[in-house]
Structures are given as C-alpha cells and as structure tokens.
Amino acid sequence: MVSEAADWLQPIIIFAVSTGMRRGEILNLERTDINLEERYAIVRTSKNGDPRVIPLSKRALEAVAKAMSVTGKVFGWKGGEVLEPANLEYNFRAAVKRAELKDLRFHDLRHTFATRLIQSGVDIYTVQRLLGHKSLEMTARYAHHDVESLRGAVDKLNGGKNENE
C-alpha cells in the first residue's frame, strides 16, 4: 500500500505504522520533538492531554530523515508546506484506492502498530503506554491476536515446543 502513496506521503505512513501515533500527533511534530541521537519522539499534546515519549525504530528514523520538511514541522506536504489533515486524508484515501484495499483508514495504522506489538509478545501494559491510553480497555480494542500468536502463547506452556512435534 505504501508504494501506491505519493513520495511525500510514504514516510508519514511508515512513521504512523511504526509508532502508533495519531494523525494529529504526527502532523504536529516539530523538529525539536525528535531526538535522533536518543531515538525518540515527544508527543507534547496528546488526545488525553498527557505528553509521552515514543521510542523510534530504525524504520521510523528513516521515515523522519526522508521527510524532514523545510518548515518547523517534521512532516510537510509536497514542497515542505504545512500539511493540513484534510490533505493527508484525501491523499491517503487515493493511495488506498490505488492499492485496491477496502475500508482502510489512516487511524487503522495505529491499530496495526498495536496488533503487531501484541502478536510479537509485547505485554498490553507496554502497548497501553505507547498508545497513550488511560485504560487497558481502550488498548484492548486496538490489539488483535491471530492464531499463530495465540499458538505461541500456548506453546510456551510446553517449553516452547508445539505439542505435535
């Protein structure tokens, strides 16, 4: 799907799915909110009002490096102009359509981040902190297991071995 997006949009999509940050949090990121040496981003104003620190993966750092706009913002539009949410949404929907995907919203990238963490064995409390949720109930709405991640949990009871082996 990323390959169907405009060049300026690709790093935003990669950053979103690599950090679980909300659209507004991403669009509001200032250059001073990114610490490349320590590999983190600071969300100064989140939906719940609490700031949080998001560790950045290699992939997220690459997206930041590719996207650094000429404005004070990290992510800009085309020539580095300030990116309005409506422009991001319009161009994201166009990329989704070109990729022939159905019912994929930008916010679903946040769900993908949470699901990947849970399926990789990250505990739900850590996922809650990364997403900036006040309650575990909200985090549970974001994190989805597949059969293989559930099988891995059950296999741990057998010392990491599948009962069929």
Structural class: mainly alpha
What is the CATH homology-level superfamily of the largest domain?
Intergrase catalytic core
Q: Can you tell me the residue ranges where pLDDT is under 50 for at least 5 consecutive residues?
A: none
Rg, alpha carbons: 17 Å
- Strands, count: 5
- Main β sheet profile: 3 strands, antiparallel
Write down the CATH topology of the largest domain: hpI Integrase, Chain A
Share of residues in strands: 5-15%
The outline comes out as globular
Question: How many discrete domains?
Answer: 2
**What letter string, H or E per element, gives the SSE order?**
HHEEEHEEHHHHH
Question: What is the percent of helical residues?
Answer: 40-55%
Fold and architecture overview:
The chain is built from eight helices and five strands, in the order ααβββαββααααα. It folds into two domains: 2-104, hpI Integrase, Chain A, CATH 1.10.443; 110-158. Helix 1 (10-19) packs antiparallel against helix 3. The chain is 45% helix and 8% strand. The chain is mainly α. The model has no long low-confidence stretch (mean pLDDT 88). Strand 4 (76-77) and strand 5 form a beta hairpin. The longest helix is centred in the middle third of the chain and has 14 residues, at 85-98.
